[in-house]
Amino acid sequence: MARTKTLSAPRPRSSDDKAAVGARGGQTAVKRTATDRRADTVEGRRTAAVPGARPGVKKAPVPEALPPPLPAPDASLTEEEQIESAKYFPRHVPKRVFEEERFLFPESYGVDRVRLLVKDPEWLFAYWDLSPRSVDTLRRELGERGLALTRLTLRVTDPAHGGTAVILLPYGARAWYVRADAAPRSYRALLGWTLPSGKFRVLAESNVVVTPPSGPSSQVARRRVRHRASPDEIEAALSAPTDVHPGPWRTEPIDVDARTGKGRKRRLGGASDAFRR
Amino acid sequence: MPVGYWCPVLHAHLPYVRHPEYPEFLEEDWFFEALTETYVPLVDVLDGLLEDGVDYRLTLTLSPPLVSMMTDDLLVERYHRYLDRLVSLAEREVDRTAREDARFQDLAKFYVHELNRVRGVFRDRYASNLLIAFRKHRDAGQLEIITCGATHGFFPLMDTVPQAIRAQVQVARQHYEKHFHRPPTGIWLPECGYLPGQERFLAEAGLRFSFLESHGLTDAHPQPRYGIAAPVLSPGGVVFFGRDMDSSRQVWSAESGYPGDYDYREFYKDVGWELPLDYLGDIVPDGIRKNVGIKYYRVTGKVSLGDKQPYVPEWARGKAGQHAAHFLEGRIQQVRAAADGGMEQPPIVVSPYDAELFGHWWFEGPMFLDFLFRKMHFDQDVVKPITPPQFLDRHPDCDVVQPPMCTWGAKGFADVWLNPSNDWIYPHLEMAAERMVELARRFESPSELERRALDQAARELLLAQASDWAFIMKTGTTVEYAKKRTRDHVARFSYLYRALKREEVLEEPIVREFESRDNIFPEIDYRVYR
After folding, report:
1. Strand blocks (E) in B196-311
2. Which of B183, B156, B181, B154 is CA-nearest to residue B170?
3. Residue B220 CB contacts under 8 Å (≥ 6 apart), including other chains
């Protein structure tokens, strides 16, 4: 709920609701102290979980051997400093056989791939992976100079009605928010290299996504069926897909500066600096 | 026959938070708070209605993680400890207020009484297992319990690996059958998230109905004739009911909704933030201040926390009654207006809420529901409560339409779960899902240890997919914890994947540790990902 399931305040369900919740939250929200903020860190919770770390707090039962005695708190320290210092106390923690803290999310899974997700009627989210092998292959083929002049590129097309947005990506980008057309469309992305010659070489092709409409259909349902109707009955009652043809997707190429990440010629189909990671 | 129907839906869900590796863990309080302030009071209200012969009808999602926590021995034991500490604090408050501030002594006694009532309902009436209560009301024909995604995965962003959505649905169905002794007939789509075509996974699992945000119906193709006043049938054969915004706003909105009334209890002013830590004692065992649920002030008005006035339970109770009457009048007018439009069947108004709004956020919420169901039963015949299956039994015909992508999040799409604060998780979740499918296909006859590792890999993937983590990253509440959970589950999954592919040694103690920490879905079968 308000949490959302973090149980703190009601969660917004619409833009209106969100504003309302914010208004009340802003009006009455309790400010945590610096000490309290420690609750928001994993390390803080661990520190706090050290049995006996605070004077006056009942010690929690410890399942195995008792921890070594802890040093008495230094009375000259503030309460916050005493808590802070507790993290340096010898700890009695369960023996670990696996340390998740050492895990780092991989930069690459070693495959060439690109995926599209629909964020809302106006924005798509593209993310991709680029294998080191592909870069090495290109380097062998073109040399370092040729590689430097090559741009990783996202070409987003409407496979049903035509039109392509070409986005020359900045170095190191792993994901991009792509501006969609105002009309509902289907989209597919191609990830590839734009070579110094201007030729586009495909590395990977994405799934196809469809943006939702942002208003009601012009057609009204005319036929009702039982809710336990057979697939054939449902099929027969289905209206034909909307016959509104949006026409080709009109876009212009976007060249995102490799250093600043800022795009030029921003038009429909371009990338969003606002959302660029 | 009434002029129309009201279909209240409470979505009860919390992420699976269970940390046996620590004697106390702050985030486990989410579950304990919700039990104390929402689930147990709700059961108590339903018991009273049943006992008094009130023909209430309620649809309740009990998400698989929530059901798992309700039946977990460790968490139940820790809840007893939590509740005992809270009762003890309330009792000390009676003494303290007598000495220091007599204005609040009656309120302190009020909390002693309320908390003892909660403890009595939970511990004595239902033997520490609320599922007994929910099954009782279900068997009485007045409560429709539905399921949810296995770990509340957000389906619209899982579409690139369909097997992952299928697993969320199938595992949830199996879990429901285990705990409720029959298959579910309906499902709450996590975050009300839907993409066209995804209902095929629901239909395959025998799930006949679900719910969509209102624009899931109003923007469907073709337009349903009755908007959200009647359910629709999707091409995949699943019925969708549309969320009514008017009745939702009356409860959701803190500004214009009932919970913001000046006589209701103020959520943010809690003794956990105000009394000395040494006095609070073991209710804050880690020395970190938090809401403990004892609050002495009312909303009062648009004033600072320091200017809040004392809470008066009798005033709040009076307001809950007035608001119940106001809400009922609104539904009466709503169904009359819809019926006057020339419908072939009585209209239905569907009002879904997070269950935890009632009681936890809106302290008087359970009381409001109590008044509302009683007024609806005794005072009028225009609008009556109903559940989706009962409505479909009486009015089985539906328009066939294709709903569009929709969610019940801000702006109605995926913005909350896909934005720069959380978009980095999706490449890793998708890769883990693909790898899980790969493992499920590769291992036909695994050894016993391999089978355990495969089943655990499925659990880790499911837990990583909970939409709660992305939501928390967006809202900024306990972001580090959400990131930690995402990292921990992906880390464990990655180890199991590599070990099963013999890129690392598959060590039984590691598998055992994962099993003990992430023990959700003990009967899971990794082949669900095939």
Report:
1. 209-212, 232-233, 239-242
2. B183
3. A217, B232, B401, B402, B403, B404
What value does the mean pLDDT take over residues B450-456?
98
Tokens of B252: 């959701």
Contact residues, chain B, for A26 at CB < 8 Å: none
pLDDT, mean of residues A125-143: 96
- Does the beta-carbon distance from A3 to B487 stay under 8 Å? no
CA distance B274 to B280: 10
* Nearest neighbour of B400 by CB, restricted to A24, A129, A234: A234
Question: What's the pLDDT tens digit per position in A167-202?
Answer: 999 989 999 999 999 899 999 999 999 999 999 999
Return phi, psi of residue B373, to 5°: -65, -35
Please name the residue of chain B whose CA is at the shortest distance from the CA of residue A18.
Answer: B410
Q: Give pLDDT, residue A51.
A: 32
Q: In what order do the strands lie in the sheet with A175-179?
A: A113-120, A123-129, A175-179
Question: Taking a C-beta distance cutoff of 8 angstroms, is the pair A49, B25 a contact?
Answer: yes
CB contact under 8 A, A277 and B488: no
Residues 6+ apart with CB under 8 A from B292: B86, B89, B270, B271, B272, B280, B283, B284
Asked whether B433 and A35 are in contact (CB, 8 A), the reply is no
* CA dist., res. B63 & res. B69, Å (int): 10
Tens-digit pLDDT profile for residues B143-182: 999 999 999 999 999 999 999 999 999 999 999 999 999 9
Tokens of B218: 């109003």
Q: Do A125 and B418 touch (CB under 8 A)?
A: yes
Q: C-alpha angle B141/B146/B151, rounded to 5°?
A: 155
Question: Does B478 contact chain A (CB < 8 Å)?
Answer: yes
